[in-house]
């Protein structure tokens, strides 16, 4: 299962306007660590269906969005709730770390 992709416009709508509790994975196709982390996030998505949103941004396709958030490096998983940034996980994180962070917002 692949994550819904966001661009600058849909990011604004889904994250800030809708205000749902969610995560956004920022990654790059050529990043080896991203190739490990993104599938972990995709595997977690079904168990949170309807309770927590999962989204993806390819930093090569939407570099201005990535830069506007002052992010450095990938992969990065940003967490949002009620339209507010809540924190992030960076690098090669494991399933448990991601789940613990999600549980904070449910």
Write up what this structure looks like.
With 106 residues, the chain is of the alpha+beta class. The protein has a single domain, classed as 3-Layer(aba) Sandwich (Glutaredoxin). It is 34% helix and 24% strand. The protein has helices at 8-17, 34-44, 63-68, 95-103; strands at residues 22-27, 53-58, 76-81, 84-90. It has a 4-stranded mixed sheet with strand order 2-1-3-4, covered by helices on one side. It is globular. 27% of the residues are buried. The mean pLDDT is 93.
Question: Layout of helices and strands, plus pairs?
Answer:
Blueprint: H1 8-17, E1 22-27, H2 34-44, E2 53-58, H3 63-68, E3 76-81, E4 84-90, H4 95-103
Parallel strand pairs: 1-2
Antiparallel strand pairs: 1-3, 3-4
InterPro entries: Thioredoxin-like_sf (IPR036249), Thioredoxin_domain (IPR013766)
Family: Belongs to the thioredoxin family.
GO molecular function: protein-disulfide reductase activity
Structurally, the number of domains stands at 1
Structural class: alpha+beta
What's the CATH first level? Alpha Beta
Helix content: 25-40%
- Put simply, the count of helices is 4
Radius of gyration: 12 Å
- C-alpha geometry: globular
> How many beta strands in the DSSP annotation?
4
Span of the ends, CA to CA: 22 Å
Lateral arrangement of strands in the main beta sheet: 2-1-3-4
Structural features:
106 residues; 24% strand
Short description:
The protein has helices at residues 8-17, 34-44, 63-68, 95-103, and strands spanning 22-27, 53-58, 76-81, 84-90. The protein has 4 helices and 4 strands; from the N terminus they run H-E-H-E-H-E-E-H.
């Amino acid at each position: 299962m692949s994550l819904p992709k966001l661009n600058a416009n849909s990011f604004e709508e889904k994250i800030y306007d809708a205000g749902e509790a969610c995560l956004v994975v920022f990654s790059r196709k050529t990043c080896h660590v991203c190739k490990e982390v993104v599938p972990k996030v995709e595997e977690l998505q079904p168990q949170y269906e309807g309770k927590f949103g999962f989204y993806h941004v390819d930093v090569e396709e939407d570099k201005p969005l990535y830069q506007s958030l002052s992010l450095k490096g990938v992969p990065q998983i940003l967490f949002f709730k009620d339209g507010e940034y809540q924190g992030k996980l960076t690098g090669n994180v494991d399933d448990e770390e991601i789940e613990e962070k999600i549980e904070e917002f449910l």
